[in-house]
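[Help] Beginner question about ligand-bound structures

Sorry if this is basic. My supervisor gave me a protein sequence and a SMILES string for zinc ion and asked me to "get the holo structure". I don't really know what that means in practice or what format the answer should be in. Inputs are pasted below exactly as I got them.
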Amino acid sequence: MRAVLLERQGGPVKPTTLPDPEPVPGQLRLRIKACAVCRTDLHLRDHEIEATKLPVVLGHQIVGITDDGRRVGVPWLGWTDGTCRYCQTDRENLCVNGRFTGRDIDGGFAELTVADERYCLALPDELSDEQAAPLLCGGLIGYRALRFTGDAARLGLYGFGSAAHQICQVAVHQGREVYAFTRPHDERTQEFARSLGAKYAGASDELPPEQLDAAIIFASAGELVPQALRAMAPGGTVVCAGIHMTDIPSFPYEILWGERSVRSVANLTRRDGEEFLALAPEVPVRSTVSTYPLEHVEQALDDLRAGRFEGTAVVLP
Ligand SMILES: [Zn+2]
Ligand SMILES: [Zn+2]
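Answer (accepted):
No worries, everyone starts somewhere. Holo just means with the ligand present. The predicted complex, written as structure tokens, is below.
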């Protein structure tokens, strides 16, 4: 099969050919129709997080067709032990032996893959392959982060990429006011956020006109944590949704005081996937998509790093 391989962290991903993967009992073989690009793919490629397996096929937002013609989605959560104290208490996202697609298990930047059937998600029929793929990490981990904001009426989104542009639509649908924050001077993305219903869009180093009840940080810049705390009303929660963040600078206790809190979100449970995939067509979430052929995954990652597209990059093998 054709595939794109990360052989060495810090280096480019390269097109190659690999033997067709063979499913073991319990696995599905999938012919891949689309695989969306996530910032975690870029963190692995750029060596901002450690690879657990090299070489590896990145990509964990996979839409594929089984040998018997069913369409399924493969998300980041690829396998759990089912027996650890987290799995036994409804927190399989924290499984101590969890295995993740496109990191521990070869992922979706390829023509074929195999996936444990128990972790594959049914996809809504009304969504095209290109529209379904971005839901599978950006959308559903963003949705998990949104749940942790409770009933916050004024919601800040720091970093307005794949996840935020989907969660903005969900939050507006739920009747919340969305405040979007981008890199300073990125007027194009601020306009994009307003076009998706954000009440306010501005630079991340500026305070919004009103205090916020919660914020989700999707960007990986640690200085956004105190920046978001400064925008919080008393009782507000700042949720860090990414897998990697640069160091958080020290900050005065007074911006945390007043029962403000900071927390992170890690991975997903299958229930998150089922809930979000049921909700997305109701909103409806419409992803802004830039497509790339399989041989151009490195270009897609480069464009993501540079902020050259709005929304989500989707690789079509
Ligand atoms: Zn992801
Ligand atoms: Zn477990």
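A couple of things worth pointing out: The mean pLDDT is 97. Residues 80-81, 84, 86-87, 95-97 surround zinc ion (ligand 2) (CB under 6 Å). Feel free to follow up in the thread.
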